[in-house]
Amino acid sequence: MTAYNLGLRFEEVAASSPDAVALICEGDSLSFAELDSSANRLARWLISQGVGKGVVVCLELPKIVEAYALAVACIKIGAPYAFLDPAAPAERARLMLERCRPALIVSVREGSGPRTVIGDAAARAALQETVSKFDDGNLPLTSLITGVDPAYVMFTSGSTGEPKGVVIPHQGVLHLIAWAKSDLGIGPQDRLTNVNPIYFDNSVFDIYAALLNGAAIVALDALKGRPPAELVAEITKHQCTFFFAVPTLFMFLDSMHLLGPEWLPSVSRFMFGGEGFPLARLRRFHDAFAGKAKLINCYGPTETSCICSGFEIVESVFDTDDGLAPLGQLNPNFSYRILDEDRKPVAAGTAGELWLGGPCVGLGYINNPQETARRFCQDPLIEGYRSILYRTGDLVEAEAETGVLRFRGRADNQVKLRGYRVELEEIDHALVACEGITRALAVVLHDATGASRLLAAYSGAKTADGDLRQHCAARLPAYMVPSRFVWLENIPVNANGKADRRSVASLLGEAVARAS
Amino acid sequence: MTAKAGPEIRSQMRRYIEQRLLMKGDGAPLHDDDLLFTSGRLDSLDAVELVMSIETDYGINFADIGFDLTRLDSISAIAALVGQPSAQPA
Questions:
Q1: What gap in Å lies between CA A389 and CA A380, rounded to an integer?
Q2: Would you say residue A198 lies in a domain?
Q3: Which residue of B has its CA nearest to A249?
Q4: In a domain, A459, yes or no
């Protein structure tokens, strides 16, 4: 029988290749059999801590062995896990925990809630000692989990001022890994990098496209505080064959003269997504690896199980005056509609909002029925039975003959910064919470090469930049903290009296240029 | 854009970079010739910010220098690049 949930699929792989390498992390290497045993023990320990099917477990952990083993343990008992950034500001962490209502938090830091802290070697050893007493055989209850049961919760920026936790079912990830096998050719011969932050959607691909296709994950710390040449050397040392990251990282490596086959000889496929890759920069990447490695542009909202389309970069991509590579055709199992503002299908060759359907669509935002109702909607073209589509907010155009999608902008104020999804309103809300500030608008300015930076305009009490930065840093992750703040006597408004982000952006563009 | 003398550019860049390092919890001393990106003290996110800041403030076009970040790898390197007459905007 085909595996119908992630736990059973993992057990199949572990049974067929027990000695193959599953995880390289912190200098250690674990086989599939070892990772499976460890996950089974942890699963029983989780149950002893009151965790059960359908109950959320928060994993506030960096890339340590326990993080991966706990994720596998959770999928085996049907407890959706949520990876949280262990460096997130306390206020943001509190908001995410409140939404999750977890039965258990495993963290590297102290805090509120039912929590096991493994912040140092002694605490990790103590947990290992406790866990080692549990049985390491597979659990019968894994077979009771269905494809529509939740597998994980992934947080993303929210326009109401707080992050939203997307709930993704097992079947969504099963389709993702099937695509990774059929279209990207991922199999036991591969080693995938996990450079993407573990609490970031892209790492779902790294972890499951690898483990559930019999390939190994190589856990790598992002660049924080370490020389980029070291990261590249480590990828080569571990003979990684597949390297998935955001364009910002690849552009950085290129700018440091580290993105070439002489530095990354083992990599046969590079994949990037999360933000557009400016064509001028992509051209350099493509030329450097021509005939040596494939480059794949992928696309997909967090709400639809990480990735919904991919496009292999070919020479003709550079003949267009599009500025960005195509998003590609939607993967099998996705249905879609491209609709105008009146929820009517657009004419061929016209841009409209992409609505996605099928088994990869998430189950909603955890404990947040208002936001769920806003984005997960009944297909407006279907009456008489239930058909839920996810409104991506992405404006796309489909090529009539091929169905290849091209990105044409956003229907709202969501932006991509260094691959992270950011709702500008979340930054506005954070700034307005600062004493004396009456109104605030965050905007993104782009330069000619496609790079972007975040700025904010505010009105009310004039406040020192350093204070505003500190205020934001206490509420928002680092990539969401504006790099400059500009005081305006009045924030421009449009005809409806609403703050006009576009005029503010052009005002700030001028203000920043004047300030130099 | 006004022409700026070398020492002023250096102190402006120093302030800017020190502030970014502090945000990352890096309060270690910073010398003019210390490597910023090669050393890993500044990362890919900082690179985008620094490049855009230099583009806006000094009219340098990153494409014109071949997207070469090693030319911005220290305070001295940035000051030298920004101070070059050829690097000034038309």
A1: 9
A2: no
A3: B44
A4: yes
